[in-house]
Amino acid sequence: MRWHRIASMVFALLVFTLATGADEPRWTDFRGPDRSGVSPETGLLDAWPPEGPPVLWRRTIGEGFSGVVVSGERFFTLFAAEDGSYVGAFRVADGEEVWRTRIAEEAFTGDFGRGPRATPVLAGDVVYALAARGGLLAASAADGKPLWTVDLFEKYGFFGPQWTLRGEPPGTLQMPLWGYSYTPLVEGDLVFVETGAGKGRSYVAFDRRTGEERWTASDHPIGYSSPLAATLAGRRQIVAVADHDLLGMTPGGDVLWRLPWAPTVAQVVHVPPDRVFVSTVALGPYEGGAMLVEVRAGEDGGVRAEPVWRSQAMRVLWAAPVYYQGRIYGFDNATFRCLRAADGEPLWAKRGLGKCTLVAADGHLILFSDQGVLRLAEAGGEGYVEKGRVKLFDAARTWTPPTIAGGRLYVRAGTELVALDLRAPEAEEGR
Amino acid sequence: MTRFLLAATILLLTVLPVRAEDAKTLVARAIEAQGGREAWAAVETLRLAGTYSRFSTPHPFVLLQKRPNLYRFEQQLLDYPITLGYDGEHAWWVNTSLVSPVPWAVEPPPAYVQMIEADSELGGPLLDFERRGHRVETNGLVDLEGEELWELVVTRNNGAVERWYLDPGTFLPRTRLSTGADGPMAKPRRSDFYDYREVPGGVRIAHRVEVEVGYNFEVMEVQEAEVNPEIGDEEFRMPLSEGMERIRGLAGRYKVTYESRPDPAVPIVEQGEMEVEVRPAYGGALLEEELTYPMLATPRRVKRWRSWDRSQEIYRTALFDSMTGHVDVLEGRFEDDGRLVVSDVGTGTSWTASGRTYHTREVTYDIGSEGFRVDLESSFDGGKTWAGKVSFVYSRIPGSP
User: CB-based contact (8 Å) between B322 and chain A?
Assistant: First the structure.
């Protein structure tokens, strides 16, 4: 009897392991599976040689700012080709292309360049991809076969008085100035997008298996911040910036709480268990700043949100900060700052790095500057301590956040993609 | 109590001059660190070139400066060329990056004017600060985001306050906190200076300058530095439209004689002399003047604005007459014989009284460096014939620009 019980448990564990691919490298979403920018991986280099971590491979790819997501032996990203925007699957081992599927026949071109902005999202065996002109595609991760597609621009349109491409008259159907730049959120059975279409359709949720519209909500103009899914005060929520509001919604689209805020590009950051951090840059009449919000269960069964602190010490433009080991690291425009998450106290600042995207892993921060410089810095110290630096690209506008999966670091600069080996030799030997 | 007040007074008198002296010493050290007063005194013009990055995108830039404060900065924002300029009196820009682009030179919003003026001083405000009318004080060593730096508080001659921070080891300027512009708004601006290098002439110049204002982050990287290249004043003047360029020379101070003759057949009925200044406004996009002369023994003041319509490629003169309160708009072009002829025939702004319509024609001719002539003529037959006339002779007052 006991043997049977043990055998059952072992079998169940095996099935679970196979089903989840627990040992597989996984970085399945924009800034990681939970959109935190924090990797759980360990055994990574704690200092870099002068030439940087070993380059595993380097390849060219179509234009775009899309990040890389990884599952098992494949990685996925979006790019532009001559005849449109694509999602593609590539081999982790050597960067070779496995398949590509077109999302849109025409690639978006804006002031900052051509190509997709969003990062694909992997959920189960499906990859979800949003092109910057509004094409939303669900495709089989195995072979790229399209499962369903919706053109957000055609179906919902966008009638913005602001944030539109130059020369388009107000009141007409307009492409958002910076394109559809956020990464859609896959939450439960839904794919959640922002259309900015107004008339109760600025947010739309689709059935992630069929692409059927499940619900629509809100009237706000389009933004560029990727939404976040988190469990706050015991309730699963979608947290997003809707123009002048920071809000928490149920996955069914009901607004649980709302706080006044300013238009924001950077993604909201979850500060577990029940807090979120939001920051925006001084833009036009807005002073910019940061706010930590605590979400609590209300006595009436509802949910309340209250600012814990506000600060002018971090005014983030586009690169979402990371919350790591009790601290918030991010770029106050072009100044790298570390704040204590509990009270917002600025702990240190470092200038001269440019503007960087960042991820945290294994006690370190990896910063990727807008001029193609990659840096390794210690996390948790009294100040900025650099432990490695390499100029990876002779390129500008390198705004794509790095990806860490399976000891590899994926870094993209527009049309170039590099995989670096972050594994410490001793960790490699142990594998 | 008396003893305490006396001690406090002595202390105050002792401390204040020391603080003032310290500021002067710090400024002297900063100038010395940048090559010294003599080396800077020999710099008449400066040309810097390299890359200027905005929105993470580098583009070439050229910065021209000429003593004391002539300034021209050519840069690019993404695909949009931008030129900022200062001719010593007026700031201007050509900014094609605006949502509604203006591809010609105009006066920028006030926040930009202030920023351009502040940036225009060759060598910066610390150099010859007393002669320039600036005041400099120091708060000693202060902590600026974890770094201990000498702080200088510069109150410019226009009242604007900037804070300059010097490296405690080298005394080179490290950071400046001032006021910049973001769109139409004035915003705090931080400039950080790195990578000082000696250039020909012995002065040391920061070869990397990072500027933050609002959400903008701009990085200037100097790749070429040329001291005392030949740069004419015209480089700093606001570029005018083709039309205004042609009549730019009308600006100046004049002795103006006039004579009026309501009908060619009758003798001159009025004549006199006055002094008139033709002033360029909006950087020369408009010429304005005011004339005072009698008409039929009644004092009369006439204000004249001359401009060029880029879209229709015509000159337009607006005449305001204090006697009638009427603004007449005249339009026209240069004739082949060099006369600028504008009239209100067809503009719908002519004066009507007692059942008659008085059309007006203005002819500007004999334009030269010494002056020019203007005839104001009237027509009562819709512009078929021009009769009554007031003739003005503008003679430039010697020394007038």
Answer: no
